[in-house]
Amino acid sequence: MTVVDVHAHVFPALGRAESRRLTGSDDGPWLRTTDGPDAGMMMAGATEYRPVRRTLWDPAARVADLDRLGVDVQVLSSTPLLFGYGLEPGRAADWCRTVNAHLLEYAAYAPDRLAPLCQVPLQSTEAACETVSEAMRQGFHGVHIGNHLGDRDLDDGALTEFLAHCAHEGAAVLVHPWDLPSGPRHARYMLAWLAGMAGETHLTILSLILSGAFERLPASLRLLFAHGGGSFPYLLGRADNAWHRRDLVRADSPHPPSHYTDRFSVDSAVFDPGALRLLVDVMGAERVLLGSDHPFPLGEEEIGRLVRDSALTDREKAAVLGGNAVRFFGLNRLPEGAPAC
After folding, report:
1. 212 SS3 class
2. CA distance 163 to 143
3. Max Cα-Cα span within the chain
4. Do residues 224 and 172 make contact, with C-beta atoms less than 8 angstroms apart?
5. What are the CA-CA distances from residue 197 to residues 53, 166, 204, 213, 318 (Å)?
6. Measured between alpha carbons, how far is residue 15 from residues 78, 147, 205, 326 in Å?
7. Where are any strands of DSSP class E within the chain?
8. Is the alpha carbon torsion for 144, 104, 267, 31 positive or negative?
9. Closest by alpha carbon to 173, among 37, 3, 26, 6?
10. 3-state secondary structure of 224
11. What is the DSSP string of 152-189?
12. pLDDT block averages, 10 residues each, the chain of length 341
């Protein structure tokens, strides 16, 4: 049974000088490392952002992890701290190309095991479209984007134009929550991650549905939401009920939210067997892909264990663990020597 993890992050070994040169700021993201196995620190300028493991920047350590965990292929995306959406578009384009070059170099260590996603300067639709087209020619398997851009969600005209371009280019799109709610109520106990991430993803999915964006976007668009789709699958009944009862909710959407679950996929990073069962019931087994959030501490330590130990049927497990990802990301394009997907 092929195992493909579609939600895994990389932070290239960008030094502070390179970050400063590309971003034009002393506060840009960079990676401070030492020789220890877990001796890395994601930095934002002089501020320590998060301690990290060596697998985040060292592909040899990553592949050793995958061997130990029984993962055949991992789809790699940059850490959201690297998005660069606050940069001037010209700088952002150069920044994204640099990050993408690092991702290609990282994946080249084991091209049969590591499938990279590019990042783009989403603040400029023209530059984002050019970057994703270039990246697909270079061998990327899709693009990794944040779930919003300031106050604009993915149903914004410029952002739906970008998504339509991705469909035209055959680029799969992984949407990750970022720029989470802040303030005293979210600052405690990592609540920005525990509650804010789920709410952000839920908001983005509903925005695409209720605005009618899915009616305008090509059906060929391959859209994947991280972290199990956030709160959406578990509150879908509430959204449907509101659509049926309130003109305000259904003003721009000709169908209730449950009508659109075949327009996107989600990963399996929900960490609970009951939640996984509900996720599969809501989305369908063919639209749930194994995701671990590796190698961060809040990710699944034993990648795929939740799915393997679940009450899903053998056919559903095979689909979630790898079959769906092979089709979604076109992993038949991996070089010779890759696992038989």
Report:
1. coil
2. 10
3. 60
4. yes
5. 22, 24, 11, 22, 28
6. 16, 27, 36, 34
7. 4-10, 29-33, 40-44, 47-52, 73-78, 114-116, 142-146, 148-149, 152-153, 172-176, 223-225, 265-267, 288-289
8. negative
9. 6
10. strand
11. EETTSHHHHHHHHHHHHHT-EEEEE--S---SHHHHGG
12. 95 93 94 80 92 93 96 97 96 97 97 97 97 97 97 97 98 94 87 88 98 98 97 97 95 97 98 97 98 93 97 97 97 56 40
Report phi then psi at 38, rounded to 5: -130, 35
Token pair for 331: 């992993």
- What is the distance between the alpha carbons of residues 80 and 103, in angstroms, rounded to a whole number? 14
pLDDT at residue 334, as a whole number:
57
Phi and psi at residue 310, to the nearest 5°:
-80, 175
Per-residue pLDDT at 339: 46
Q: CA-CA distance, 229 to 199, in Å (whole number)? A: 9
Centre a 10 Å sphere on the Cβ of residue 162 and count the other Cβ atoms it contains. 24
pLDDT given for residue 39 in this prediction: 79
pLDDT at 309: 97
C-alpha distances in Å from residue 268, one per residue of 8, 172, 235, 300 = 12, 17, 17, 10
Ordered alpha helix ranges (H), 284-331:
305-308, 314-318, 324-328
- Residue 259 gets the label, from left (phi > 0), alpha (psi -120 to 50) or beta, of alpha
pLDDT of residue 180: 82
- Among candidates 151, 88, 76, 168, which has minimal Cα distance to 119? 76
Hey, what domains does the chain have and what are their CATH numbers? Answer: 4-12+57-333 (3.20.20.140)
- What's the pLDDT score for residue 218? 98
